[in-house]
Input
Amino acid sequence: MEDELLAEAAEVAEAAYAPYSNFRVGAVVVAADGQRFTGVNVENAAYGSTQCAEASAMANAVTAGHTDIKTIAVACIDAEGDCYPCGNCRQMMRELGVETIIVRTPNGAARQHTLAELLPDSFGPESL
Ligand code: THU
Output
């Protein structure tokens, strides 16, 4: 399951629009009902307008009516080191209930984390 999701994330990363960083990222989210949605990073000449792959994938899930996401897998196919989701994407995951984050290590192996590990003591909907 982990390896299959990472393979799908790596495959979709080929579609990334990353002409500035040449750092292509792909993400796959698994909604509560098992449906999967993908996303890639979409860069912009106004660099701050760049969208991460994870954010794209989560937005695609929400667009299809899925606001309850269980798992997200991320693959950075141009990375030499580990590739972990940025802070902003972790906060988005928190909002949508992500429990498990799967990252692809440089040798291709899967590493799995809970959201609580990557975003401890977080702020969420029930904090309001
Ligand atoms: N990027 C992602 O897509 N996800 C992350 O979690 C970290 C960074 C993208 C944004 C930008 O297009 C490129 O990677 C370099 O930062």
